[in-house]
Amino acid sequence: MTYARADSPSFSAAEELIGLLERGSWPATVFASGMAAIDAAFSLVPVGGRVVMPDHGYSTARTLAKNLAEQGRLRLAVVPIADTNAVVEALAGGQGSAPAALCYIETPTNPMLEVANGPALVEAAHTVGAVVAVDNTLATPLVQRPLEWGADVVIHSMTKYMGGHSDLLMGAVVTKSKDHHQVIRQYRELHGAVPSPFDCFLAVRGMRTLALRMQRINESAATLARRLDSHPVVEKVRHPSLPCDPGHELAKSLMLAFGGVISIDVRGGQDAADQLMEHVRLWAPATSLGGVESTLERRGRYSTESPEIPANLVRLSVGIENVDDLWDDLSAALHRVAG
C-alpha cells in the first residue's frame, strides 16, 4: 500500500475515461482543480524556459504564468493566439531570445472565443523543440481532440463541461508520451493536489451524459448566437458558428461543433451589461460555466482580466434548458436594458 495521493481506484476510473475520450496513449492524471492541472503542465518547462501563451485566454492561467515569470522560473511571451504568424514568430525567438520551451494554446479562448490554428501551431512549436499544451475545456473532446493534431498535453477543468453539473472541483491532464505522463504523475504525487474520491465519482457520472449535453448545448448556442446577431441592443456577437466570425472557417475545419459559450457586447457600455445580468430570470449570473444551467457574467469586472476585454462584454454559457425559454428570458432582459 502507498499514499492515496499517489493513486487510488477512484482516480483510475475517471482517468481511464478521460484518456479514452481524448484518444490519449495513457490514462489522464486527475488533479484537485483545473488550475492545479495547468500548474502541472507548466512543470514541463525547464527553469528559465520561454512560454508562449494567449493574451486573451483564461485570466488565472495568465496570472500564474506572470507570477512564475516574476520569480524567474520561466520567461513569458503573450501573443494573440489567432494570429498564427505572430505565434510562430514568438515560438522561434530570435534577437538574443531562445526558442520557446512550451506553446500553451487555448482555443476557443475564454472569453473572446478566438480560434487558433492548432495543427499549424503544433508543427511550428515542434520545429523549435517546444512542448505543446492545449486547454480543451471550452471545446471538450467531443468537439476537438488536440492530441490528434500532434499536441503533447491536453488540459481540462473537469469542473466545467466534462463534469457538467456545477457540483465538483477537479482538473485533468492527458499526455501523448510516456515521459510526460510520468512527469505529470510525479508532480501530482509530490505536490499533493489530488481530487477527492467523491469528485472522481461525480466526474464519471457527468461524463456519462457528456454527449447528450454537448449536442443540446452546441445546437442551442448556435441558435442563440444567430438571434443575438440581429438584436438591436447587441453591438457584437462572438461565436464561431456565425459566418461573420473571424474564426468561423477555421472552426469549421478543426471542430465538430462550435461550442456552448457566446460572448456579446451590450449596447450602452458597462452599465448596460450590468443591467442585463440583473434583469435575467432563467440565466444565472455566475463565474463558472459548462453546467446544465445557463449562466452569464460580465468578465471585465475582474482586475486580472485583460484590459483589452471590452467593459460591456458579457459571456454566456448555454445550458440544456429549452432554447426558446432561454431566448425569451434573454430578449426580455435586453428589452429592459434598452428602456
Secondary-structure map with pairings?
Layout: H1 9-21, E1 29-31, H2 34-42, E2 49-54, H3 59-70, E3 74-79, H4 84-92, E4 102-106, H5 118-127, E5 131-135, E6 153-157, E7 171-175, H6 178-191, H7 197-207, H8 210-229, E8 234-238, H9 248-254, E9 261-266, H10 269-279, E10 284-285, E11 295-298, E12 313-317, H11 323-337
Parallel strand pairs: 2-3, 2-4, 4-5, 5-6, 10-11
Antiparallel strand pairs: 1-7, 6-7, 8-9, 9-12, 11-12
Please tell me about this protein's structure.
About 40% of the residues lie in helices and about 15% in strands. α5 (about 120-125) links the parallel β4 (about 100-105) and β5. A 7-stranded mixed sheet has the order 1-7-6-5-4-2-3, sandwiched between helices. Strands 8-9-12-11-10 form a 5-stranded mixed sheet. It folds into 2 domains: about 10-205, Aspartate Aminotransferase, domain 2, CATH 3.40.640; about 210-335, Aspartate Aminotransferase, domain 1. The protein has 11 helices and 12 strands. It is of the alpha/beta class and about 350 residues long.
